[in-house]
Amino acid sequence: xxxxxFATTPSLDLLRDQPAWQDLGACQNADPEAWFPEQGGPxxxxxxxxxxxxxxxxxxxxALENREQHGIWGGLTERERTNLLRRQGGARxxxx
Length: 96
Hints:
Layout: H1 12-17, H2 44-51, H3 56-65, H4 78-95
């Protein structure tokens, strides 16, 4: 060939790594900035959309498992997710 390189498409492995539930989220056509407000900014719009979302639980589980530190996931803010993890950790310690 003439030494020209071409961009490659993402491998199928990368596409498989994307959680399937993300394609079903009610947030797909909403402004992404609603899920990442400035500290102390409004969260009502994102939370309202999350409340009506069929994959809210999957989204929240993903955020908790991956320790997402920013944004609203599954209808909860960073602080709400942190508090939930603390409560769950405390419940596990009591049950042990």
